[in-house]
Amino acid sequence: MSRFDFSHPPFDTLTPGEQQTLEKHADIQFFAEEECLLGPSDRVDALYVVLKGSMREMAGDEVITLYRERDTFDARAMVAGQTPHRFVVHEEALLYTLPRDVVMALTEQNPRFGAYFYASVSEKFGSMAQRAGNRELQTLLTATVRDVGSRTPVFVDGSTSVRDAARVMKDNKVKSVLVRHDGRLGIFTTTDFRDIVLNEVPGSTPLAALCRFELLTVDVGDFLFNALLIMTRRNIRRLVVTDNGQAIGILSQVDILSYFSNHSHLIAQRLDRADTLDELAEIAAQITRLVQILFSHGVKAPQLGRLVQTLNARLFSRTWQLLAPAELQDNSCLLVMGSEGRGEQILKTDQDNALILRNGFNHPELPAICEAFSAALARFGYPPCQGQIMVNNAAWRLTESQLQQQIHQWVYQPDGAALMNLAIYVDAEAVAGDASLLERSHAYLLQQLRDDASFFSRFARAIEQFDTPLGLFSHLLTKERNGKAMLDLKKGGIFPLVHGVRSLSLEHGISQCNTFDRLHALAEAGHLDKELASEIAESLSFLLTLKLSQGLQQLSLGKQPGNQIEPDQLSTLERDLLKDALGVVKKFRTQLRHHFRLGSF
What we know:
[protein-PII] uridylyltransferase activity, CBS-domain, CBS domain, 6-stranded antiparallel sheet, 4-stranded mixed sheet
């Protein structure tokens, strides 16, 4: 049995022969507490893996990184041949030492292994996503009939004629009906009409004489794969879905194949044809399930954010259509804002929405309708906004003229609350109603901001609210290991990047809302260095994905997703990427301070 653990990155990419080569040359060394293993400019002739104890990487007196069991260090120093930092034993340590020449030879032989030492942040993260994709088959095999959902069945009496049944199927846009007759339940499908035509069966014939009463069923809790297996074996296209023996739906072969090949398309179709809030609540739960499936396939957070934004927009729009009368829909514009507007809110967090009304229009039931809308979203799993930035708050239900007055106040009386509200509004996207109301309001905002450098400086200054915690690893130095250092990903990394890009975009009149689109537009227009824009995009993608990963873990434990993570629980590769990402945040903040002259305020 191997004494070396090859199950974690980057060693999990080695072939059996390469593993033998590495293990043959690996040595185990003991280092006492506070012993200095490497110092600035020391020659680095090995790669180290912590077997027991802990090490800290120091830049002067600042702790840069803490390494614990199974952590690897320092790949960059090994490649460069020397290090600018000190590596000091924090707790008595047993280390594997892997000779530099052996490791470097393996990097040349094995590109995937070598990528760990030379790849950029985005390439390293792509490698992580590829590993996650290997779980795809397992995830799909555990999906249930409940996950895909089923079409509500249409019931008819056995005495119904064939002609009347055809009319019912046409009116309800279904390809089958369930037939109740003498305590039995049968099924009649469009395929049965083929035999009726061929056999010249009269249209007045009752369905009880033609339908099949030996139903093939599947329980709502059964595995979806089993349903597909039944259809394949019996050469049929649909099954009756039961719950406690009662028929509750019809599952077609198309539904199953759509789920496996394009689950999001199936959800979108169900949203469009949903007629009740109960149906929408069920579909809303499927969006989170979709995120779990696609994330396990290796889909990155930015792409998931765009997909969820599209589905949420349809969910919110359909909800509004069910609650608001036609005249209100025609004379208003429903907005989502903040991370939802940017397409960067993947899991259900707080609501951020508003309503713009056409000048002169009012509806007597408007407060009640908006209250019902906010309550519906809460029921769907979107918690109320703590700041009450929702349509059920009259402050966020404004006519077009009132909104322009509000924008003018935000710009010319920019206290903290005003700037926060403006930042949320800048990310607004229309999801229902007349989008031109939002377009005109945005145009008005840009008119108010022309050549006002002092305003942009005040607006951008929010990036200084929270520090970028590059020294967070110093908080992990509890030798008793009974304390937990937490990192707020949003405050420490995501917000400075998002708001910094938002500030530059507002200054230069960039119309896009999504941060990645804004980065591309800024770089193409020459307002942001392309290499820095790429680094920001890579770092934000990683931070959002890390936040999503932690959020899904919290959901699996029955907890509400949040922004805090425990760095001590991250893998070596994740901590390495986190350090890189926070370094980019710090670099970007430095540039923003200079660009907006934040030191003058």
